[in-house]
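pinned: reference chain
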Amino acid sequence: MLSYAATIFLSAFLLFLVQPIIAKQILPWFGGAAAVWATCMVFFQAALLAGYAYAHYLVRRQTNRVFPMVHLGLLVASLALLPIVPSARWQPTGAESPSLQILLLLIPTIGLPYLLLATTSPLLQAWLAQQYPDRNPYRLFALSNLASLVALLSYPWAIEPWLTTTVQARGWSVAYAVYVALAAGLTVASIRRSRHGVVSAQEGGPVEPSATPRALDVMRWIALAALAGFMLLAVTNHLTQNIPSFPMMWVVPLSIYLATFVLCFDGRGWYRRTLFTLLGIVVLLLMIWMLVDSRHDFELLMQSAIFLSGLFVVCMLCHGELAFSKPAPAHLTTFYFCVSLGGVLGGALIGLGAPLVLSGYYELEIGLIATALLLAFQLRRLGRWPIAIGVLVFAGTAASAAYSIAEQRKNVVAKSRSFYGVLRVIEYESTNSYTLMHGAISHGDQLLAPELRKTPTSYYVETSGVGLLLRSFEDRPLRVGLVGLGAGTLAAYGKPGDTYRFFEIDSDVLAMAQRHFSYLRDSSATVQTVIGDGRLSLMREPDGAFDVIVVDAFSSDSIPMHLITHEAIALYLQKLSGEGVIALHISNRFLELLPIVLRLAREHHLAAVYVDDVEEESEQVNLKSRSDWVLLSRSERALDDEVLQERKSEAEEPPGTPLWTDDHNNILQALKLW
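pinned: its C-alpha cells
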C-alpha cells in the first residue's frame, strides 16, 4: 500500500510541477502573452485525458500480459526525452499560429512523460482495488490532488525565486527518473501477479448492477467537470488581463481548483450541498458586481480576493457533486475519464474556441451564467421558494452579463481578438479622437482634426523621454528600431531621411494602426514593419543597424519579461551604433520597473537618464498621459542634450535590486501591491 501511495504522490507532484516550469520556458517566445498559459493548459488537460483513457484500456486488458509489458517499455523509453528543455528550432518566426506552435512543441518536449504521469493515479488505484478489495481507492485520488497542490504552491515560493529555469528543468528530470524506477517496479509486480493468476477481472469484488454508470451519470460528470475547468481558465484569464501574467497568477487559481478536489474526495464530508449553494449565490453576486462596476477594474487585491473566492466556491459545487455521484471502484477509470474529458472540453472552449468565436473577453460572463444555471438546479431540491430565488438569480446574472458585454462595446469603432488579446478602437467625441485599447490599456491616441492628426499624443508627447530624445537628433537622419507598434504614434517624429522600423508581434495591431490611424502613412520617414516577437526579430537584424532602439512593450499589465533582461540589453547594444541610445518605456500600473532597469544599466556600464513626464493642464487638447522613460547609452555625450538634462528626474538603484536574466527573473520582485 505504501509503495502505491508514494508512487502516486510523486507522479502527481511532477505532473503539476512541470506545468509552470515548461510554460515559463516558452513564455518569452510568444511575447509573454497571457494566452500562453491557457494554451498550455489545453495541452495538459488533453494529455491527462489521454492518460486516463490509456489507463482505462490497460485495466480492461489486465489479463493480457502484453499490455503491462508495453507500459514498462514506454516508461523506459520516456527517459530518452530528458531533460525537458524545448528545442530552439520551435521558436516562432511570426508566420505560425501561436496556439498550434505551442501545442506542437509541447508534444516532443514533454508529451510521453506527461502521458505516463497522467496514467499513474487511475492505473495504480485500479490495481490496488483489484489487489485489496476492502480498501477505498478514492482516498488515493485525494492524495494525488494533494501532491499536485503541494507542487503548485511550492513553485512560486520555494522554486522560482531561487532556481534558474535550466536548473528547474534538470531537477525535474532527475525526479522523473526516480518516478520511472518506482512505477516500473509496480508494473513488474503486476505482471508477476498476473502470471500466477493472482489478478482476475473479478478480483475487485462483485459489482452491484446499480453501480453501472447510466448515460445520464456520464453526462452529469462531464458537464460538472467542464464547468469547473471553464471557470478555472476564465477567472485566470480575467485576472491576467488586469494583473501581470506570471507563474504565481497561474498557480494560485489552479491550486484552488485542486484543493477542492482534495476536500471533496477526501471522504470526510467537507462538502455541504446547501451551504455551498448559498455561498455560491453570494460569490456570484460579488463577481457580477466586479464585472459591471468599472471603478474597481484595477484594484488588484479586491479583484483577486473576490474572483479567487468565487472560483473556490464554484469548484467546490462542481467537485462536491462529482464526489456524491462517483461510481463503485470497478468503474473508477470510467469516472476519471469522464472527469478528465469534461476538463478538456472546458479548457478547450477557453484556450482554443473563445479566441476564434468571441470578439472580446466574454467567457467569464458566459461562465457566470452557467454557474447561475447550476445554482438554480441545486436550489430546486430545497422547495418552491428556493426555486423562485434560483430563477431570479439566473435572470439577474444573464442581464448583468449582457450589460457588461454592452459596456465593452460602447463607442467601439473596430474590434478584433487574437492569441495576444482583444484590441478595440474607441471613438471619443469630446476630444474628436481615436484610442487603441489592448484589454483595458491604451496603446495610443490620435486627434482626428486634420491640423492636429500628426501631433504625438499620450505617452509620446514632445515632453516625454522618447519625444525629447528624438527631437535632440533633428540635425541628422536617424535609423530607429521600435519594439511595439501600438497606434504608430512615434512615426510622427520621423523626418525625411529617417528610417523607422517597427517590430510588432500581433498582426492585428498592425492592421488597426494602418486602417484606423494615420501616423504610419503621414510620417515623413521611411516606415517599415516586421511581424514577430521583437527580440527574436531584432536578432535577425545586422549589428549596428540602429541609432535608437525604442522598447515600448511594458505599459500593458501582461509584460514580456524577456525584453528587459541582461541578455536583452546586450542584444540591443549589439544592434546599436557606437553612440546609440536605448529608450525603455516603463510606465506600468502594477510594476515598478525603474530599479530593474537601473540595475541592468549598472551591469552593462551604461549612462542612464530617467524622465518622469507628468500630466499637465493645457488649454489645447493634446491627450497627454503621464509616462516614465529610461534612456540608456554607452556614451554620456549621446544623452547630454540641454533640454533632456533639464527634464530628467533623479533616480537611484535601491540596494539589493536583483539582476534579471533570461534564466532567472521573478516578476514578484517588481510588483506594486498598493
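why pinned: Residues 198-210 have pLDDT under 50 and may be disordered. Residues 28 and 562 are 5 Å apart (CA to CA).
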